[in-house]
């Protein structure tokens, strides 16, 4: 997982770099609570209706999401997660980062994550 400051790269610049690299980009909008972040990931990545809003479900659903990329021979995806300052102090921030890093490792080149600190 790469981490950038919004002062370094704008979301638009990152999206352009992702596209230029032959990848699809998905932007995760900012959210400032654990529940809101989990809901936002579920909506943005089109997790199934049975997706529970908890950390275990995020982990499982990200792995399923990664499988769907490789199973359908789709172009690799880069997730651009916008992280507001208020959420970076939340205890669940580090856990979510670990889950995202695990998903990247699981997916290989099919999934990359960029966190942009707002």
Produce the secondary structure layout:
Layout: E1 2-5, H1 11-20, E2 24-28, H2 34-44, H3 55-71, E3 77-83, H4 85-88, H5 92-107, E4 111-117
Parallel strand pairs: 1-4, 2-3, 3-4
Helix pairs in contact: 3-5
Q: Estimate the mean pLDDT confidence.
A: 94
Numbering strands along the chain, what is their spatial order in the largest sheet?
Answer: 1-4-3-2
Number of helices: 5
Helix content: 40-55%
Distance N to C terminus? 16 Å
- Written as H for each helix and E for each strand, in order along the chain, the element string is EHEHHEHHE
Poorly predicted ranges: none
Radius of gyration: 13 Å
Largest sheet: 4 strands, parallel
Bulk shape: globular
Strand content: 15-25%
Quantity of strands, as a count? 4
User: What structural category characterises the helix and strand content?
Assistant: alpha/beta
